[in-house]
Amino acid sequence: MLKIAYHPIYAHPLPPGHRFPMLKYELIPAQLIHEGVIGSENLFAPESLDEEIILLTHDKTYWEQLRDLTLPPKEQRRTGFPLSAQLIEREICIARGTIDGCHFAMQHGVAFNVAGGTHHAGSNWGEGFCLLNDQAMAANYLLNSGLCKSILIVDLDVHQGNGTAQIFKNEPRVFTFSMHADKNFPFRKERSDLDIPLQDGIADDRYLELLHDTLPRLIDEQQPDFIFYLSGVDVLATDKLGKLALTQAGCKERDRVVLELCKRQGVPVQVSMGGGYSPDIRNIVDAHCNTYRVATDLYF
Q1: Where are the alpha helices (DSSP H) in the chain?
Q2: Distance between CA 92 and CA 97 in Å, rounded?
Q3: 281-292 pLDDT per residue, tens
Q4: What predicted TM-score, i.e. pTM, was given to this entire model?
Q5: Torsion over CA of 24, 30, 32 and 38, rounded to 10 degrees?
Q6: For the domain 3-299, what is the CATH code?
Q7: What is residue 62's three-state secondary structure?
Q8: pLDDT tens-digit readout, 174-185
Q9: What residue stretches are annotated with the Histone deacetylase domain (predicted)?
Q10: DSSP 127
């Protein structure tokens, strides 16, 4: 059964200026249920998370400043969010959803988090609407629990996964791969194990060619026993914050390439949604829903 982390808090703790991009967290599961792709039984609501798991990834001082709402104003501005207790609760809930999703992926091959992909959060900083790095926290949880020995993080958001790269720069058991627009945010990049910086305006054919040339080789070389996939749809030509030019069909084929490889190799995969900022919310929701549609076709 496809299991999907979803909690109402994903969409509701933010001030009015931030609500438009957060609407997708309500609309994605609603659309999938409307289509009959999933039922309510596919959704699970994450709970909270022990501090000891957070501290496997994030610096103690940074975490305590988030928890106690004492993060300096300059650092708050860097995150893009005004700090609040509800926002921290949301971040913790998202991270727990990704961790729980790992267990479901090990049972069923694939699992999703409707939110997540908070890849700009480093060990001691938040940035770009990311405060706690959900997939990095889940990867460290798997390693610390002895559940995995080799992990591959496939980040195909339009923005580089700079926080993830920084967190794992000295961790040989985690291989970080980011294929992103070179001239997009973040303007100060970190070094992933493999970065493929893309020129502005790359469209379906070249993008998919690069992915086909790279990902099968990485999986063969790294032999991961778990994969995290960040499936941001800000690669679309319609995205107002991205500089690539994929179509809806190209973005869907990207998802098929990744998920088909995971299934063929028998490697469980957890998928977090990442970014999507097209002016028309329908473009965002449809592209994200395509990722679930592809997974359902392949796995179930």
Answers
A1: 19-22, 24-35, 51-54, 60-67, 73-79, 85-108, 134-144, 162-167, 204-222, 248-265, 281-299
A2: 9
A3: 999 999 999 999
A4: 0.96
A5: 130
A6: 3.40.800.20
A7: helix
A8: 999 999 999 999
A9: 21-288
A10: B
